[in-house]
Design a protein that fits this description.
The chain is α/β, with parallel strands linked by helices. The protein is built from seven helices and ten strands. It is globular.
């Protein structure tokens, strides 16, 4: 899981271009097969799904050439409100940018419309917001995977509310949903709405990156 890519970085949410290229180079060296969520059932000895959040413009500027160079694929989870209205001081992609991403290397997926923490909103809000996320992408002519990244990687831990959420996702036709869990996933899975994302920090060394691929997140990190 990544957020933003920049030429240089000094924060955990942004990976600099040099570090990202080292990581991609390692994936190719070790013969990882990168996949889209729509290809999750295809057999491969070592599979990985690279994910990026929100739709930042610098990902549009830097990722295509890097993915092509190392023959890798990436899924970008789009929060449609951020595309429409912007997010803080960050430059975001436009819907035209998203449409122009090479489908050989990029898959678009869901990140809700308003990007609200699911722990703090009602079941009704979740359903309406996800429908809006999907409808806007459809109206913009953008094909998307029925996979959701939970905003902030969270949802309610209370069992009744959690089961209600999962029922809503199923009724909306969402196949998978991802939280931040820092655990390696195995497929097939009986928990499609509780998949974990390994959070790659901007300052992670290549050694940390290698260990996270194998173990997820270790306490020593």
């Amino acid at each position: 899981m990544y957020h933003k890519v920049e030429k240089t970085s000094n924060d955990d949410l942004t990976v600099d271009l040099e570090n990202l290229e080292k990581q991609f180079k390692y994936l190719r060296k070790k013969k990882y097969t990168s996949k889209f969520f729509t290809e999750i059932d295809l057999p491969a000895k070592k599979s990985i799904i690279l994910t990026f959040d929100d739709g930042y413009k610098n990902n549009f500027n830097f990722l295509p050439s890097l993915l092509e160079k190392y023959d890798l694929k990436a899924t970008i989870f789009i929060s449609t409100k951020f595309i429409q209205e912007g997010y803080q001081n960050y430059e975001m992609m436009t819907f035209e940018d998203i449409r122009n991403l090479d489908k050989k290397y990029f898959e678009i997926a869901l990140h809700t419309h308003a990007h609200e923490n699911f722990r703090n909103v009602s079941d009704d809000f979740v359903e309406k917001d996800l429908k809006k996320n999907m409808q806007i992408l459809t109206d913009q002519g953008i094909k998307y995977s029925t996979t959701l990244a939970y905003p902030y990687g969270k949802y309610s831990k209370e069992n009744k509310k959690k089961l209600k959420l999962f029922s809503t996702l199923k009724n909306l036709g969402i196949d998978f949903a991802l939280r931040i869990g820092n655990k390696v996933n195995y497929f097939p899975t009986n928990k499609p709405y509780e998949l974990c994302r390994i959070d790659i920090k901007g300052k992670d060394s290549l050694i940390k990156f290698k260990l996270k691929l194998i173990f997820g997140r270790l306490k020593l990190f």
